[in-house]
Specification:
The chain contains 14 helices and two strands; from the N terminus they run ααααααβααααβαααα. The chain has helices spanning about 1-20, 25-50, 60-75, 80-105, 110-130, 130-135, 155-180, 180-190, 195-200, 205-230, 240-250, 255-275, 280-295, 300-320, and strands spanning about 140, 230-235. It starts with a helix and ends with a helix.
């Protein structure tokens, strides 16, 4: 299994390395960067929701905490951004794991957890707007410096693309190590039946907090790098929960291929729908409802069933 994962990671990594070499249009490179960024967000959400069924509706807040921490601290403390980005990620991880601890210890239902985390998302936006002297409020904050000094001869989009791909590789390695360890077994038990998992000795609270910590850390880390890639942040940039959930559910929760497929398809869909403005959110909302009702297992599960369906249809044809 480990050898298969290594080969799979190498294939994915090679594909991502080759992709920008086929493009030279700045807009296409921007979309490619967004594709990798959304894939990172979706993998992080998969660790929290896909593997322990903790419905966080504050992904945007966790990403935003990493982004604003990484943008504001270097300015006030006069230290390099790359030193602060992991600190912002740790801050996001502490918030995410605290939410998980409260909801797990109090045994909140998935609906109450959704309400709790949605409230946090709203609070995050209000805090950013309230401290406008520091954060820039609704108008946003322009970042004057980059993570590293980019030579003029190097395409900035490509440089950041490979930085995001490196983050993606690290995230995939972490994900595979988790899933193929005793932690992954515990996650699977929790998804199937929390009460049964607890009865056989699985510390449900501990593993839920761990999944929230890891997923939130990756969200905050990506958010910090995204802030410097974009060189501009505002509260409106972090209303991402709906899009991330659609990508995850469509691709397939609890799998590695799910976030990769979901983010790939819906990044392109999002770009096509972008001219529609606010209607984009409505469309994604309707899509999420449809996916939860009729396509909960996701694209990966459907693709895995195709050979079986093909054999079944072929068998019936031969029988006739």
């Amino acid at each position: 299994m480990r050898k298969v994962n290594v080969i799979q990671n190498l294939i994915i990594f090679t594909a991502y390395i080759i992709l920008p070499l086929l493009l030279n249009n700045p807009y296409q490179l921007r979309v490619l960067n967004l594709l990798v960024i959304f894939t990172l967000f979706t993998i992080s959400s998969n660790i929290i929701f896909g593997h322990t069924r903790q419905l966080f509706l504050c992904h945007g807040a966790l990403i935003g905490v990493g982004a604003y921490t990484s943008a504001l601290l270097p300015k006030s403390l006069a230290i390099p951004p790359w030193v602060v980005i992991p600190l912002g990620a740790l801050f996001s991880a502490c918030i995410g794991s605290s939410i998980s601890a409260i909801s797990s210890i109090r045994r909140l239902s998935i609906v109450l957890m959704a309400v709790l985390t949605l409230s946090l998302q709203i609070i995050f936006g209000e805090v950013i707007v309230g401290f406008r002297e520091i954060t820039g409020g609704d108008e946003g904050l322009v970042l004057r410096h980059d993570i590293i000094q980019v030579p003029s001869a190097i395409n900035r989009e490509i440089l950041y693309y490979y930085l995001f791909v490196l983050l993606l590789l690290v995230s995939i390695i972490i994900y595979n190590r988790i899933v193929n360890s005793h932690i992954g077994v515990a996650f699977k038990c929790i998804v199937e039946d929390e009460i049964a998992a607890s009865s056989v000795g699985v510390n449900v609270v501990k593993y839920k907090i761990l999944s929230a910590f890891i997923g939130s850390f990756l969200l905050g880390l990506t958010g910090g790098v995204y802030a410097y890639y974009n060189l501009y942040i505002s509260p409106s940039l972090f209303n991402l929960d709906l899009y991330i959930l659609v990508m995850l559910v469509f691709g397939g929760m609890g799998t590695l291929a799910g976030p990769l497929l979901g983010a790939g398809v819906f990044t392109l869909v999002f770009e096509l729908l972008r001219p529609m403005g606010p209607m984009t959110t409505l469309i994604f909302g309707v899509l999420l409802i449809i996916l939860f009702l009729y396509f909960r297992e996701g694209l990966v599960a459907w693709l895995r069933r195709l050979p079986t369906l093909h054999r079944s249809i072929s068998g019936r044809t031969l029988a006739k």
